[in-house]
Design a protein that fits this description.
Blueprint (H helix, E strand, L loop, with lengths): L11 E5 L3 E5 L5 E5 L34 E7 L10 E4 L3 E3 L10 E7 L8 E2 L4 E3 L4 E9 L5 E4 L2 E4 L13 E4 L2 E4 L5 H7 L24 H14 L6 E2 L13 E5 L2 E5 L12 E2 L11 H8 L2 H4 L12 H4 L31 E7 L18 E4 L15 E4 L8 E2 L3 E2 L11
Parallel strand pairs: 4-10, 19-22
Antiparallel strand pairs: 1-2, 2-3, 4-5, 6-9, 7-8, 7-10, 11-14, 12-13, 14-23, 15-18, 16-17, 19-20, 20-21
Length: 423
Amino acid sequence: MHPGTVHPLKPSSGACGDSLTWTLDDNGVLTVSGKLKMTDNPKKPEPKEEPVQKVEPEKKSVVPEEKKIYSILFSANGGIGSMGARRYAEGTRLELASNVFSRPGYRFVEWNTGADGNGVRYADGARITVSGDLTLYAQWQVIGESDFVEVEGMTVRGEIGGSRIFVRGRTVTIDTFWMCNHEVTQGEYETYCCYGGRRPSDEDGSGSDIPVYYTNWYDAIVYCNMRSRAEGREAVYSLNGETNPEKWQGIVSKTENGKTKYCGPTSNNAAWDKIRMNNGADGYRLPTEAEWEYAARGGKAGMRDAFAYSGANELGAVGWFEDNSGGKAHKIRTKMKNQLGIYDMSGNVWEWCWDWYATVSAGTARTGAAFATNRVERGGDWFNEKLYCAVSYRLEDEQSGRDAGDGFRLVCNTMSATGALKR
C-alpha cells in the first residue's frame, strides 16, 4: 500500500473477545453488538516486597570489671603468736581462719571487729562473705571463776523423792567442786576440736554462744583434756597411761585453716571405753551423774526445794524445750538460772556424764557402775517434752552416738590452775 491510495472496504464480520461481535456491510457501515464488561477494581500487579536488610548493632568489646581485693587481718590483741594477713577477692565466701594465738592465763573466746569486744562478733571458723577490709581482734577471757560456780559438797544419805541416784540405803559423799555455769558452746568446742560427723546448722541453731551438739562421749573426753593442757591444767583422762589425746590410738584429726583439731571415734571403741579418770587432777572433766543431779537440784541448799526442773517447777522459766524452742538450740544463759547460778540444766542440750548407765543401788560407787554398755546423759534438750527435762530423768546412749541435742558441761576440782601453759 502506498500513501494516498484508497481501497474500498469489503463486507466482512467477526468477534471481539467473549462478548462483542461486529459486521461490516456493503455500504461500509460497521455494526457492533454485545456489552463491554468493565472491571470496577482492576487488579494491579502485586508490588514486589523489597528484602529487609537487618542492621546489626555495633558490637563493643566488654572488658570484665576486675574484682576488688580486700585484706583480712587477725590481731592477737594481747595474745602470743602470728597469723598473717589474708587477701581475698570481693564476694568470696570463706571460713575464717582458726585461732592459733595463745595467752597464758586466758582462753580464746571469739573474734570481734572491735578490740574492746563491742564490735561485730564472729566464732572461730565462722563463714563470711568478703565485702571490704576487715580486722578481727582475738577476745580473751581470764581463766578463773567468771564462768564457774563453786558447788559446796555434802554427804547425801538415803532416798530423795523422785531420784534414781539418791536412793534408799545409798550414801554418796560429794566433794566440793566447780561447775561451769553454761553448757560448752560451739565457739569453745571448735577452739580445740572438730566434728566427727554432722556439725551444728542454722536450722538446729548455730553460733559461738549456742551449746555445741552432735558430740559423742568420746568427743567430750578429748575436749576436756585438750582444753586442760592448753590452760596449764593437769589432764584428768588417760588412755594406756597417756594424757595427750593427740597420741591416742584411734583419735580423729582434721586440719582446718592451718590448725589441726581433734575428736573421738565414730563407733564404739573397746580401748577408749577403758579410759581412766584421775580424781586428783585439776583439769576439766565431765561431772559424775551424782554431781550432775546434785548441782541441778541446787546443791546443798537447793536439795530442800525439790523443784521438778533445775531452778523451778515451771520448765518454761528455766529451759528451752519442745513447747518454746521453735525447734532449735538457743544461746546460753538466756533463761533463769538455778539456785547455784547455773543455767540450762533442764533443756537446751543433753549433757554427757562420766558414768556408765546402770541401775543404781545402795552399793553403787559415787562415780557410778564399774562397767556397762552405754553412758549416761542428763537434762533433756530443745525438742524434748517436759518429762525428759526433769532433774530426776536419766537417759542412756551409746558413747559413740552423735545426735542432734548431744552436748556436755564441764566441771573441775579447783579453779587454781597448776603447771606451765602447754602448747
